[in-house]
């Protein structure tokens, strides 16, 4: 599919710029041109498809559907985690969504299954993972993110931590906003999807280009296997350290994943790379600060500990499976 893109990158570097093949500069520049074009093509396709699917699942509709099925606890955890993939979400929407779910009577554990899945399995990360590592790793990312969200939600629900939700949350009445939802035609959905996709790419393109640029420099100037002894599969602490580094780190997934691709080439194991990426996207510092408005410190600490432990276990598991 990307053979013409590779030919174009070769033409620009070796013919147009006349840089000698086999040099470090040629390798870095060729990588940058090829990966930039490839990633933006895949990013547009994947974000467009996911955004179109999401147009059928507004947060209000998700809340209503989960509220209706709250009696079937285990299945509702699965449903909540699946809705987390297809429902529009950003860190700034975490608090109103949480309040809306509590007001609708959705159990706390189910609410967390949704809140964990939504940022962890996001469309930009999925698109870039597919572009850099292929379908197998992208599917592993989705499945592992969903499992972490489901199990974490079940554990939080079993612990009975409702008393650690801020008291004012239970007094707020959001009301049923679903009735105001506009009925959309297919043409309207496609137009909105295209506009959203272009707007999203406008927001993240700088992060993507900077991430690819750093990755291209590493590709050309740092030899493969350079980090194998520090963060390879044989270092028993690599996953743990990578997760701890990623938890407080504030970064856009669009900037992190192109670097993760190069981490792999330099010898960082797949499980360690995934753990680092998941901790950055699922437990970002801004989201923790926002969630503190509705969660007391003990529940917030339990949330971080359970999700962080799930990410670490996933990292070790995939280091064993994938090597």
TrEMBL record:
Keywords, in A-Z order: Cell membrane, Membrane, Transmembrane, Transmembrane helix
Keyword Membrane: yes
Pfam families linked: ArsP_1
Subcellular location: Cell membrane
Transmembrane segments: 31-53, 74-99, 138-161, 204-230, 237-260, 266-287, 299-322
Bilayer topology: Multi-pass membrane protein
Family: Belongs to the UPF0718 family.
Descriptive protein name: Permease
Taxonomic source organism: Caldicellulosiruptor morganii
């Amino acid at each position: 599919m990307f053979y013409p893109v590779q030919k174009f990158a070769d033409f620009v570097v070796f013919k147009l710029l006349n840089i000698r093949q086999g040099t470090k500069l040629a390798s870095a520049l060729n990588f940058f041109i090829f990966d930039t074009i490839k990633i933006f093509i895949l990013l547009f396709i994947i974000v467009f498809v996911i955004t179109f699917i999401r147009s059928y699942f507004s947060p209000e509709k998700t809340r209503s559907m989960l509220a209706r099925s709250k009696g079937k606890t285990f299945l509702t955890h699965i449903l909540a985690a699946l809705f987390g993939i297809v429902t529009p979400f950003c860190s700034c929407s975490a608090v109103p969504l949480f309040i809306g779910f509590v007001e609708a009577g959705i159990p706390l554990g189910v609410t967390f299954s949704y809140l964990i899945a939504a940022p962890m399995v996001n469309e930009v990360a999925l698109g870039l993972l597919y572009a850099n590592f292929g379908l197998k790793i992208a599917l592993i990312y989705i499945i592992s993110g969903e499992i972490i969200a489901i199990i974490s939600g079940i554990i939080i629900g079993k612990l009975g931590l409702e008393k650690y939700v801020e008291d004012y949350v239970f007094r707020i009445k959001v009301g049923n906003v679903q009735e105001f939802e506009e009925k959309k035609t297919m043409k309207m959905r496609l137009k909105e999807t295209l506009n959203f996709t272009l707007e999203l790419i406008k927001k993240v393109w700088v992060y993507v280009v900077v991430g690819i640029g750093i990755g291209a420099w590493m590709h050309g100037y740092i030899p493969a296997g350079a980090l194998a002894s520090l963060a390879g599969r044989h270092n028993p602490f690599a996953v743990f350290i990578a997760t701890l580094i990623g938890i407080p780190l504030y970064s856009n997934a669009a900037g992190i994943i192109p670097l993760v691709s190069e981490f792999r080439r330099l010898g960082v194991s797949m499980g360690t790379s995934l753990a680092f990426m998941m901790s950055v996207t699922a437990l970002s510092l801004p989201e923790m600060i926002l969630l503190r408005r509705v969660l007391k410190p003990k529940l917030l600490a339990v949330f971080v500990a359970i999700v962080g432990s799930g990410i670490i276990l996933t990292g070790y598991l995939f280091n064993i499976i994938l090597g």
